[in-house]
Amino acid sequence: MNRSLLISCLTLVGPALVSGQEAASGEADPNLSYTGKPLVQTEIEAETLEAEITEDKGYLIGRGSVKLTATNLEITCNQIEVFTDVKDKDGNDTLGELSSIQKIIATGNVKIVQEERMATSGRAEVFPNEDFILLDEDPIVYQNDITIDGTGAQMRILRGNGRVELIGDTNNKIRVTGRPIEDFGFEENEDSIVPPEDEPVGDSNNEEEESPGSEKGNNEDDPEAAEQSDE
Q: Which CATH class is domain 3-177?
């Protein structure tokens, strides 16, 4: 890799990203980002790097084992492209300012690592002026114990919060996987609040001897008892 070329490319990209993070922070300390994290100089490494600056546009492309590092951000991919404005609408120089970077495109085996989350996709577009990253081509986000699978969908990672937005359809549904929860079923021998059934009352043999049917049968066998009964 041509180191002199790398240094010239960083003059196009590095100060802009760091400057943008500092400007967004509003912090008195110029060494801290708006989240309070130390600012890290933005660097891009690749097997080949090319950069070109015209009167109003800047363009950088890196190919092969690409790695971009910045404050709380690491992007690895096969190719990266950076699009910048050199002058604003009034003709003032904007190179090195946040507003100058219009878009960063990472393609091929994209992996984005932050302190709070990690994401993978086939393509990622970073929009510094709009504070979000757009993931395409089967994006997946890992955040804490949650996995958000956006296979077939597009995903937006928003800056400054933990929000992730996805849009799928009937053929490409979004799937969220979290940690297991405890079984809410029950076991057959578990304690029950249902009272036990009542035990039978009295002696079944005595009930049979004193039943009306038995008394009638004895009268039929004893004629005298039957006559007294008739009287």
A: mainly beta
pTM: 0.63
Top pLDDT among 160 and 26 is at: 160
Instruction: At 102, list the tokens.
Output: 């219009």
Q: Residue 130 to residues 17, 46, 114: CA-CA distances in angstroms?
A: 13, 26, 18
Strands (E) in the chain, as ranges, are: 43-45, 48-53, 57-70, 73-85, 101-113, 117-127, 132-136, 140-143, 146-149, 154-158, 164-167, 175-177
- The answer on pLDDT for 19 being more than 50 is no
Tokens of 94: 């904007």
> Which pair of tokens denotes residue 202?
């009295």
Burial bucket for residue 12 (CB in 10 Å: 0-12, 13-18, 19+): buried
The helix/strand/coil state of 158 is strand
List pLDDT tens digits, range 100-137.
778 899 999 999 999 889 999 999 999 988 888 999 99
Domain parsing of the chain, residue ranges:
3-177
